[in-house]
Records
---
Amino acid sequence: MITVHHLENSRSQRVLWLLEELGADYEIKHYKRDKKTSLAPAALKKIHPLGKSPVVDHNGQVIAETGAIMEYLVDQHGGALAPAPDAPNYQRYKYWMHAAEGSYAAIMVTALLLTRMETAPMPFFAKPIARKLTQGVRDAYLDHTMKGLFDYAEATLGDSQWLAGDAFSAADIIMSFPLEGFAARGNIAGYKNIPAFLDRIHARPAYQRALEKGGPYGLIR
């Protein structure tokens, strides 16, 4: 049996969606975020030492990290939702599988941290200093890096309906989180292919079933 240790409003929502697309049998153990810190509860450390979600237990084997979990589940289901290794678009698929939790997740976390720094309670005289520091990071790194990444996703989705080509794949599932986060932060103006992609994935029955089972899904901004 597959058990998903599912943290609300988190990356683990994609694991539920993948399992629904695969038609797999699984159970969910739900965890709530700390109301003050928004962090995962200490109970998750009983499952994996890092105490992060998603974590999957498959017949006693504990697997952490979204990308590793998704590749494991795809392999366990005969390579479903992935092109064959000798297919022309296989490396394209692999790129998006790893870029989601690499380049894209990193830039979204950086944006989140800067926003929290800018809005954190602090003495009035510290506010201008904090804003100057965060704006320096935005100007030197964040803004142009984020634009480059999401422009690339936009261009890719202009060439094909799905990120790895004409067929829906696990790459579309794993990339949903950074693309949804990008849209939720209000950065979507001027893009047309990313919003259309999000409309397509949100309309999928498996996506909707995962939401019903995983609970309300709100992105932390």
---
Amino acid sequence: MGEVIYSAKPLWAVLVSMGAALLILLTGEKARNLRESWTILAALIKFGLVFSLIKPVLAGKTIEYTLITLLPGVALQFRVDAFGLLFGVVAATLWIPTSFYSIGYVRTLNEHGQSRYFFSFAMCLSAAIGVAFAGNLLTLLIFYEILTIATWPLVIHHEDTSAIAGGRKYLVYTLTAGCILLLAIGITYSLAGTLDFVGGGFLAGHGSPGLLILLLTLFIAGFGVKAGIMPFHEWLPSAMVAPTPVSALLHAVAVVKAGVFGCVRVILFVFGPELLQQLGVWTILAGVVAFTVVAAGLLALGQDHLKRRLAFSTINNLALIILGVSLLSKNAMTGGILHIANHAFMKITLFFCAGAIYAKTHKDHVSQLDGLGRQMPFTFAAFAIASMGLCGLPPVNGFISKWFLCLGAVETHQIVFLFVILTSAMLDVAFFFPIIYNGFFKKPLPDVASKVDEAPLLMVLPLCFTALFSVVFGIFPNAFLNFFNIVRLAVTNVLGG
């Protein structure tokens, strides 16, 4: 491990949006502009704090801050390494356009309970940064559960029957997962006497093979719920009853990415590649997520509801991330971890587009989108760019991560997994490109107003921003935020060399 810097910056990065959440509640509905100014100000401060951590981490340093030591080897502690920084930078960066988009969305649709909405949103982002910068399993679990609770009011925001049912299913799945994780963490501490993340893992030599395989199963089940690994995925499409900015938060920035982040932390920083190879379980794990990749893609084909189609696309791509990490090769890990960032920019663009379409037309089914591309050209162009990236086409950023995933499958001589990755790309083409074609080249349906135009600027600018940067990061993967260098360092921290 390189030099350790003791700094409270990770703590402040967590607390800044908690402070904004309190100010949002105090401001309330009577001063909307002031209330939403707190949201924007906190987003900018959080980004500045997280961005300031990039340079020291890339220099090989680790930033630590300990709140309290509870037991020997167990503390409430923040530790910023390359992998945590990647998730933190993604969350902090995308909170800015999401905040502007949310303001435009709730005002255009005159949503009720806007103060509660922005309060919960801010708490979610605090929890996401806490997950990213957690120095050990206990700290990760605490913020993981805060994220669960903070997201629930957003899922049930509309307070109708489907929203309440979706929220109930979300809580049942995620709180059960939390209990499983608590059990797994207890077993881990009893075996190793520590919960601190270590590049390459720390469980080797602790426990019998059977117990370690059981422990890995518990961890993957616990984190796999939020990651949407089948058969734990059912809550995710049901949560699409939430407002579109919430869906974007769920799928691109916070909730499901926290699940994937937890899976990767366990695979690479608790167990480690060598132990997984010794246990002989990496092929089983890769097989499970490979099934999820293909099954989710096939299910997406059958969805006419646009957000449900995007939900199954998310499950498909999250499984690709875990597949890359499970292959345990340098290139596959690089592709999988890089896809955490790349998928976030592409998927949030797609949800922003879905929300813009709904805000202007109240259409939310794929079969209702004919001809809208000519009336909403910026929105559909952004949708086309993000779709191309998820299909793995250059020059969008998704091409780079999927290229490395393919290289990793070849590197490990796992041709079946190469076939899975390529099949996933073909399925992406099958369920995205008809939307683009119909939007631009078919006539609008009779019930669509001929004067439909773009959504308000506060909604269109964020989706153009995220689409643009999906292309920028596809051409210059180290532009501005150094994503590729951060990923390379994270992989080096695990594999060495």
---
Amino acid sequence: MTQTRSHGTITTAIQHQIATIEFAHPASNSFERTQLDALTHSFQELSNNPNVSVIVLQSQGTGAFCAGASFKELLAVTTPEQGRNFFSGFAHLIQAMRDCPKIILGRIHGKAVGGGVGIIAACDYTLATTNASIKLSELAIGIGPFVIEPAVSHKIGKTAMAAMTLEPDQWQSPQWAHQKGLYTQLHQDQPSLDQAVAERAAKLASYNPEALTQLKKILWHNTPNWEQLMLERATISGQLVLSQHTKTALEQFKK
């Protein structure tokens, strides 16, 4: 599925049992709700594709990997229902990635903020460059990383999650993310990253797909009822995004 570039794109290619999903948006690869839905649908479709064993998730360009939620859409929210609907897009995406029986490799070439960190945490194996710093900036705009918290805490633990959340103005280094378990591998530049991603994807695709499916279940064991929890968190975010504090902060971030 592909959308127009002004609203972001989601493209999927399949070769040798490896599916590559690439998302793009002119605003630092941020996500509008329709794009979140499209990416969720891509994972759901690939989940049922017997010709796919491994999925590589990447974003376009050489700048940011993902800037999280679209500030333009956040500013357009006028009711709690609209807010809940927007944030539930991240909930549905993370749930689809968790439920996908295929191993998901994340190719993280640049910085990630907010929801982008949640998407990284929902991957099973991540390869990043030494430019891929991360930040949870939600508190600085009057909300919080409520929806993505289950995935991030599952990957890096509550203590590291709390540190990121309570330091919304601080970038955490790729080395920090690697030490905490968010990144599996670190590489110096994009060429070496691409080579490592290709090699790891090919190696995984050569393994018994049934074994990979069973391993995926084990990796996400003891993460029950996330969807309901994340939707409840989306309701909280949807209410907070209407506050004057948040509206003012978002306008400042746009400048």
